[in-house]
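User: Hey, my collaborator sent me this sequence without any context and asked if I could get a structure. I don't really work with proteins. Can you help?
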Amino acid sequence: MIIYFVLKSIECVIDNTDMWMFKFEHLKKNLADYMYKDIVSSKTNVEVLNANFDVEHSYEIIGLFEWYWGGWNSTPDADVMQIVAKKWYEKYDAELIRISHDTLSFECRKLSENEAQILMREIKNLSAEIIDCSAGEWLDHLMEKQSFTLWWD
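Assistant: No problem. I've predicted the 3D structure and written it out in structure-token form, which is a compact way to encode the shape of the chain:
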């Protein structure tokens, strides 16, 4: 059986040293090389780029980050988060659309109240916060907005 992969594109926010190293070691710019004079050292020096990954599903991208993403404080490591993102893809059609060193953004289909409550519990179990709105608005946000951004401290 032949499996064909399509290119999946997400925004990669290069906002700390690990993300910069991932970019340096794994991403190549078409037509010209990246050139840096120093390592990204502050929030004011953030770069957002669109990166294409040769994967079938966007959740697979998390695993490509290996130790560059997660595994610190209460943040799950990349392998665990890839499993969770796959589950969300299968249950809620959640597609990863953006990654930074401490956030993941997803787009999904419109969720029922029950689905939003279940997803909200799963997010809390990951020790993550939805930063698109205040904590009291999470349920309504998950049901109405069809996107959410998770943040870990």
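In plain terms: The beta strands are 7-14, 47-54, 95-99, 103-107, 129-130, 147-151. You can pass these tokens on to your collaborator as they are.
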